[in-house]
Give the backbone structure.
Amino acid sequence: QVQLVESGGGLVQAGDSLRLSCAASEGTFSSYVVGWFRQAPRKEREFVAAISRSGGTTYYADSVEGRFTISRENARGTVHLQMNNLKPEDTAGYYCAAALNRPITTDTMNPRWYDYWGQGTQVTVSS
């Protein structure tokens, strides 16, 4: 069972950038599709981005397309979420999730599709 640990959150101003990381506890990270989700207070958890096992396919929510980039380093067991031009509406807890041995599809945008979750890292963007 893989354990996921997020890092890189913080308090920034609108227009700034942050890079989140999701580190896996085991070495077969290339077997997992990985997604990022976020949840703001009193709101449902929403899809942000996902990346295929090889890194060759990515999906993004419309709200972050062009500003966020998801990437992975399988040898290091890490997935990154580069977030540029942050907006106050990006404020939320950010969570990475992993699904084992499945191809990436549009189902990847559904949080119920995933097997494992990290504890999250907080991102706060001030105006």
Summary: The longest strand covers residues 92-100. The chain has a mean pLDDT of 95.
